[in-house]
C-alpha cells in the first residue's frame, strides 16, 4: 500500500476516511455474522488492504452491495448453475468475471448471467475503449466506450422533405 502516483504501489488509499470507515464496518459486520477474513481486513487510516472474505452471509452489505473497495467475497459451490443463479439474485449487474477452462461453462455464463458484460479468465473491470462497458439492473444506465460516449453526447436528428423543388 502506498502513494498511488508511485508505479510500485499495488494498492492506494481509499478516497477518504469516511469510505475507509464504511468498508471496515461492512467487513466487521460480515465477520460478526459468521464470515471469515482469509487475508487483509486490518485498516490503517485511509488505507484498506486487499481483503478476501470467505462465506460472508448474503444479507451482509459486503456481499450484497457494491463495495467500491478492495474486498472480494468467495464461497464454494457444487453446481455451476447455482453460482449463476446466485449472481443473478443480486440487484447489480455491471460486469462478471468468470474463471474457467471449460468452454461450455464460459458460454453458459455469457448466455445466463444478467450483467452488462461477462469476462472469461480476466478481472471484470478489464475493458477496451471500443467495447460497450456498462451495467444492467442497479449498475447504471447506458454504455461507455468511444462510440457509445459519442452517441450519448449527441442528439440524432432527421429531416424529411417532399416536393421542395431544386437545390438553388
Automatic annotation (TrEMBL):
MF-aspect GO terms: glyceraldehyde-3-phosphate dehydrogenase (NADP+) (non-phosphorylating) activity; lactaldehyde dehydrogenase (NAD+) activity
Catalytic reactions on record: D-glyceraldehyde 3-phosphate + NADP(+) + H2O = (2R)-3-phosphoglycerate + NADPH + 2 H(+)
Keyword annotations: Oxidoreductase
Pfam family, one: Aldedh
Occurrences of domain Aldehyde dehydrogenase (ranges): 1-157
EC number: 1.2.1.9
InterPro entries according to UniProt: Ald_DH/histidinol_DH (IPR016161), Ald_DH_C (IPR016163), Ald_DH_N (IPR016162), Aldehyde_DH_dom (IPR015590), ALDH-related_metabolic_enz (IPR051020)
Family, similarity comment: Belongs to the aldehyde dehydrogenase family.
Full protein name: NADP-dependent glyceraldehyde-3-phosphate dehydrogenase
Top-level taxonomy: Eukaryota, Rhodophyta, Stylonematophyceae, Stylonematales, Stylonemataceae
Amino acid at each position: 500500500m502506498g502513494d498511488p502516483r508511485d508505479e510500485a504501489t499495488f494498492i492506494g488509499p481509499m478516497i477518504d476516511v469516511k469510505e475507509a470507515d464504511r468498508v471496515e464496518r461492512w467487513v466487521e459486520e460480515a465477520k460478526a455474522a459468521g464470515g471469515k477474513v482469509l487475508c487483509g481486513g486490518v485498516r490503517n487510516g485511509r488505507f484498506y488492504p486487499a481483503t478476501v472474505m470467505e462465506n460472508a452471509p448474503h444479507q451482509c452489505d459486503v456481499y450484497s452491495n457494491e463495495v467500491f473497495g478492495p474486498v472480494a467475497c468467495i464461497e464454494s459451490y457444487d453446481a455451476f448453475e447455482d453460482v449463476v443463479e446466485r449472481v443473478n439474485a443480486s440487484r447489480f449487474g455491471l460486469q462478471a468475471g468468470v474463471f474457467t477452462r471449460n468452454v461450455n461453462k464460459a458460454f453458459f455464463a455469457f448466455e445466463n448471467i444478467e450483467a452488462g458484460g461477462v469476462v472469461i479468465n480476466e478481472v471484470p473491470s478489464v475493458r477496451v475503449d471500443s467495447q460497450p462497458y456498462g451495467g444492467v439492473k442497479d449498475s447504471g444506465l447506458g454504455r461507455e466506450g468511444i462510440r457509445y460516449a459519442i452517441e450519448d453526447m449527441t442528439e440524432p436528428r432527421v429531416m424529411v422533405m417532399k416536393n421542395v423543388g431544386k437545390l438553388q
